[in-house]
Each structure stands twice: as structure tokens, then as C-alpha cells.
UniProtKB/TrEMBL annotation:
<dbReference type="GO" id="GO:0005524">
    <property type="term" value="F:ATP binding"/>
</dbReference>
<comment type="function">
    <text>Catalyzes the synthesis of activated sulfate.</text>
</comment>
<dbReference type="InterPro" id="IPR050512">
    <property type="entry name" value="Sulf_AdTrans/APS_kinase"/>
</dbReference>
<dbReference type="InterPro" id="IPR027417">
    <property type="entry name" value="P-loop_NTPase"/>
</dbReference>
<keyword id="KW-0547">Nucleotide-binding</keyword>
<dbReference type="GO" id="GO:0004781">
    <property type="term" value="F:sulfate adenylyltransferase (ATP) activity"/>
</dbReference>
<comment type="similarity">
    <text>Belongs to the APS kinase family.</text>
</comment>
<dbReference type="InterPro" id="IPR059117">
    <property type="entry name" value="APS_kinase_dom"/>
</dbReference>
<dbReference type="GO" id="GO:0070814">
    <property type="term" value="P:hydrogen sulfide biosynthetic process"/>
</dbReference>
<dbReference type="GO" id="GO:0004020">
    <property type="term" value="F:adenylylsulfate kinase activity"/>
</dbReference>
<dbReference type="GO" id="GO:0005737">
    <property type="term" value="C:cytoplasm"/>
</dbReference>
<dbReference type="GO" id="GO:0010134">
    <property type="term" value="P:sulfate assimilation via adenylyl sulfate reduction"/>
</dbReference>
<keyword id="KW-0067">ATP-binding</keyword>
<dbReference type="GO" id="GO:0019379">
    <property type="term" value="P:sulfate assimilation, phosphoadenylyl sulfate reduction by phosphoadenylyl-sulfate reductase (thioredoxin)"/>
</dbReference>
<comment type="pathway">
    <text>Sulfur metabolism; hydrogen sulfide biosynthesis; sulfite from sulfate: step 2/3.</text>
</comment>
<dbReference type="Pfam" id="PF01583">
    <property type="entry name" value="APS_kinase"/>
</dbReference>
<keyword id="KW-0597">Phosphoprotein</keyword>
Length: 208
């Protein structure tokens, strides 16, 4: 575990300042990163919102949602591999900063590339920040039927280039901490399963 340090710490191409929290703040709560990944419509936004609702009474929580991030932090980035990698690098950077300060961070971006996700995991581990990958698995057939935003219809008609799962790759996690079968389990069941893993790992306490 990397201890809190004053001043700048080299993290490859990133140089960041980390300031040690004082007094009780240092032990008050432990931040962590819950990293949702999966195809469009697999349930990343839905589950991150529902899990955060349940965590809020006991934690400071922040959701970094792909759509929202792309309107602000990653405005101007597209969906080529380098752009997606850059998007995930930025989300990972913010997630780690927040988690360092005791925040429960829920990231909900497609994050299709294993290397990018593993890089966030590695950097989090270097700082002793718990990182849990939540793979939202659902068959393409169900996602096309769901078509929450009408994007699959357009992608199948060739109107959206580089659409994940249709004309762009998605590399599933090999050993995610949590596997959600979002095409066959209810949202409530998925929420309960995520909370159970967090409790098992001592990252949250059971709701009273
Ligand atoms: N080409 C293409 N492929 C996939 N998704 C697309 C694309 N174009 C737009 N969208 C919309 O952008 C959302 C995904 O953005 P992310 O930042 O999560 O993607 S990534 O992690 O950088 O791959 C995604 O949101 P979700 O549906 O919530 O996953 C889509 O609404
Ligand atoms: N177990 C589940 N977890 C999350 N979403 C689910 C689940 N079962 C069904 N859904 C539905 O799937 C859809 C997922 O949409 P959304 O959360 O916007 O996906 P994403 O953020 O991955 O694009 C919602 O309509 C949600 O109600």
C-alpha cells in the first residue's frame, strides 16, 4: 500500500499531489472503486444509481457515469480505441482521487478494453484503494430487444460507426469480482448481490 504523501508522486505520466487527511478523517471511512463495465444497455447506470442510493446513508458516494463524463470531462472524445482509452484513463484518474478521500466511487462507463480497466485496477492497487470490477453481462439479443436509447437500431442500420458489440469490440473481464447477469436477474437482486460483496470485504456495513 502506498502511504499518503505530501507533495508530488510520480505515477508514470501522471504527477499528482496527495495530501494526508488529518485526525479522525484519516480513519473515518475507506474509499473504494466499484467499476461497472458492460455493453450499452447492460444496466451500468441503473445498477450504479440503485447501489449508490443504498450506500448513501453510510458513505459519501459519487457516480462517474459514461454519458455524463462525455459531456464534461471527456467532451470532444469519440469512440475510436485511443479515444476510449483516454476516456477511461481520465475516469480512472478522477475515481482514484475521490476514493483516496474516503468516497465510494461508482464508475459506469462501457470501458470495453481489458488493458484499460486493468490499468485503473493496477494504479488503484498501488495506492491500496480497493477496486472491484462489476461485469454487467447480457446477451446482445436481449440488449437489442431492450434498446433503451434506440442506439442498437441505428447501429444495426449502420448509422453509428464503432458501436460497441455491433461494429466495435468488447473484451469481457476474465475474473470480475462481481458478475451480474442483467438479462436474467432483477435489479433488486443485483443490488443485493453487490452490497453483499461490499459487506463481505468490509467496505460497507449492513443497512440498519
Ligand atoms: N459508438 C458507440 N459505442 C458505444 N456507445 C456509444 C457510441 N456512440 C454513442 N454511445 C453512447 O455513449 C455511451 C458510452 O460511452 P462510454 O464513455 O461509457 O464509452 S467508453 O467507456 O469510452 O467505451 C453509451 O452509453 P450507455 O448506453 O450508457 O453505455 C451510449 O449511449
Ligand atoms: N439486473 C439488472 N441490472 C440493471 N439493469 C437491469 C437489470 N435488469 C433489467 N435491467 C434494465 O436494463 C436497462 C439498463 O439500462 P441502463 O442502466 O441505461 O444501461 P447502461 O447504463 O449499461 O447503458 C434498464 O431499463 C434496467 O431497468
Amino acid at each position: 500500500m502506498i502511504p499518503w504523501t505530501l507533495g508530488f508522486r510520480d505515477e508514470g505520466h501522471e504527477r499528482e499531489a496527495a495530501v494526508k487527511p488529518s485526525g479522525d478523517d484519516a480513519v473515518r471511512s475507506k474509499g473504494f472503486i466499484l467499476w461497472f463495465t458492460g455493453l450499452s444497455g447492460a444496466g451500468k447506470s441503473t445498477l450504479s444509481v440503485e447501489v449508490s442510493r443504498r450506500l448513501m446513508p453510510r458513505h459519501s458516494v459519487d457516480i462517474l457515469d459514461g454519458d455524463e463524463i462525455r459531456n464534461f470531462l471527456s467532451r470532444g472524445l469519440g469512440f475510436t480505441r485511443p479515444d476510449r482509452e483516454e476516456n477511461i484513463r481520465r475516469i480512472g484518474f478522477v475515481a482514484r482521487r475521490l476514493a483516496r478521500h474516503g468516497i465510494a466511487v461508482l464508475s459506469a462507463a462501457i470501458s470495453p478494453y481489458r488493458d484499460s480497466r486493468d490499468e485503473v485496477r493496477r494504479l488503484a492497487a498501488e495506492e491500496g484503494i480497493p477496486f472491484l470490477e462489476v461485469y454487467m453481462q447480457a446477451s446482445l439479443e436481449v440488449l437489442i430487444r431492450r434498446d433503451v436509447k434506440g442506439l442498437y437500431k441505428k447501429a444495426l442500420a449502420g448509422e453509428i460507426p464503432h458501436f460497441t458489440g455491433i461494429s466495435d469490440p468488447y473484451e469481457p473481464p476474465e475474473s470480475p469480482e462481481i458478475l451480474i447477469l442483467s438479462d436474467s436477474e432483477s435489479v433488486e437482486m443485483s443490488v443485493a448481490r453487490v452490497l453483499a460483496v461490499l459487506e463481505e470485504r468490509g467496505l460497507t456495513s449492513p443497512a440498519r
